[in-house]
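Q: Start with the shorter request: fold the first protein.
A: Done. Sequence, then structure:
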Amino acid sequence: MKCPNCGAELSKGNLYCEVCGMEIQIVPDFEPEIENSITETLSTVAKDVIPQEMPDDKRIELQERKKKKRILVLVGLGCAGLLLILFGALLGARLYRDNFVDIQVKKAVSEYEKEHFVEAAKFYENAMAMDDKDIMLRINYADCLAQMGETQKAIEEYLSIIALDEHNEIAYAKLISLYESSGDYHTINTLLSNCTDEKIQNEFQSYMAKTPEFNYKGGAYEQVVPLKLIAPSSGKIYYTMDGTTPGKGSLIYTAPIFLRKGTYEIKAVYINDFGIASDVVTQIYTIEAVIPAAPLVEPQSGEYNIPQLITVEVPAGCNVYYTTDGSAPGENSSIYGEAIPMKTGISNYKFVAISKEGVPSDVVERTYQLTVETNLSATDAVRRLKYRLVELDRLLDAEGNLENMSGKNIYVYNSLHYVDNKTLYFIYEYYQEGDNSRNMTGTIYAVDAQDGWVYKVIKDTSGNVSLEPV
């Protein structure tokens, strides 16, 4: 069979010419001769069925009815023919379109794989001309534009795809890749900020610069506020507390900010890993917490030649924390529980009371210089203790090894005390198994700093100390 338009030989089953693209009709045109033949046939039938001997008026009436029926039949046949032609045309067009699009896509893929991007783009254009609603066709076409170096046209195509389908993650990913290749992170942030699809925003959140979140809303509080600033991704939060605009030169948020008393204006900005800054967010807090009384610490600062115990009167509803390294005390410092032995030499203590609402008192500082004349050093006292325990067969040797035990005892000097008119080194006993950490046994020994006598320290439930000779 040949094409009626160009004469080219047609492949079997094709509904269009592969040379000129002419559609091949599968239903013949309706011809007038057919209508005339049908009319003559119906006339003959009418004559045969109408009796000649019938009265004229009856015969005329019957002829009129037959004429109307003939007209109705002709109209019905005409409509049926037109419907058949229309159905055939639509079916042919659909098959033609589907076959044409499929062939164009196959050719485009083949050219793309050969890196013939210009040719691939043309085939995609042909396919899109027949099917402009297929999103993947448009995405593949935009890919060709990007590979051809037509970056702006590719961007426009991806944007038009997103306008049609705002949930198309593929289009977002390819568009972001193009912006990123040129370092245009500001546009990426704007693109994602305008995106209404939360899933897509979460997928590419590292490119976004959302404002940081505050775990407490601004307002008035009667307790300390441990303010946390929450970053939307892996960037950094910069903040100020004096009302100035934060930036890269401002404080970097790393830990909760304790708002204790007064009015605070906190401004914060988030800057992502690509250097894009969010809008600045501001919160104002008024803290009206009650400041607790400062702890009472005895003895007062000074020089001492007899060991002293440092005692603290803890304000009601508070805990007292202290440091010995000169740093400011806080809730992460050592907590005061019982009297603290004064250290030999010069020592510095700082104490603070913190209420259950988290409000700190003023800091109390004490500096001591303890000078004690002794006949034994602390090292000598530990050695004397171990020798005594060996003499009593409580240790196998001065290394602390024990009978029928794989581990050994370790003895550590803790502090100098004054008990029963004696200056004593307090030494704590630990048990250590192999290379594992030491664990306290609960036994405390004391060695007289003057004569070397060894005692076991006994504490009652009230904390009172007595000595038991060893």
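Q: Next, the second protein, separately.
A: Sequence, then structure:
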Amino acid sequence: MGDFMRRKKKVLLLGNTCSGKNDIFDEMICVSNKRCKRESFKGEYYYKFENYELINLPDTYNLIWQQGDDCYVRDYLCFEDYDCAVCVIDIADFVNGISLALQIMEITDKMVVLINGSPAENNIDINTGALTKHLGVPVVKATALSGKGINELLEQIYLVANRIIVNEPKTVFYNNDIEYALYRTAKGMKGNIETEKSHRFLALMLLKNDSDFNYSFKEHFGRDIFHNGSLRGNLNTAKLMLENKGIGREKYEKAIALSILEKSKSIYDACITKNIIVKKHRKYTFLRALKYSLASIAALAFVAFLIICIYNHSVL
């Protein structure tokens, strides 16, 4: 137990392109703490008597439909050990960011979501309390360029990494057929593979039958893993059931993508408010001020006109 408490905690930083992830990385290791040691994609920081290793993973938009660096990020999340994953979401690209967060939540509950950017500058309001309830993981608002919110982020990472709080991520519901296929496949993995990661995402990828993922899966759990009777039997049963329902690979992938997109949009609608009323109010205030200014000028002009008329009359 003592060795566990003393070991360096590992934190992953993930996000879409232009999410501000790199700026958050700099803030965490070089601004929040004097003990700053930086490499190209790794850094260290110290918080509440503990050492943390921060790993800035390559930018990615998805973990299910992968190419290039996406495969590396997916495999790291699925097969490596870490204490917390932070998903950085650009406030101006909220739906795509939430889509990535939902995919990460299918893999691990050790997660914090960071909303990067200024709501006021983007003319929106974010209900972080509602967002936390919809996701089932802590949500922090921060502005990378100013460093605002970084201390709260470090605190939430500390709570998750030390299991002081245990998240209950809200996973995406696909259709009934896919959900049952995931259940059967995950059931085949139970007791046959050792991992803290969710069997649900592993099952999702095995049903997708992606050759790159299958290779990584075998490399991690053993080259003969697919020879296991329970896993092989349940996986084949699930695949056959989907085929009998007319759900081939293309339809399977489309159903998953659509479900994630719909979930992301529903979260946006529930947690984001556009400040249209504020804009109207400001416009109305400006017009009202202009109206009174013009009225005052007109009144002054009229008074001046009367004074001139009275003066001319008295002179005559």
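Q: Describe the second briefly.
A: Confidence is low (pLDDT under 50) at residues 1-5, 277-284. The beta strands are 9-15, 37-38, 42-47, 50-56, 84-90, 111-116, 124-126, 139-142, 272-274.
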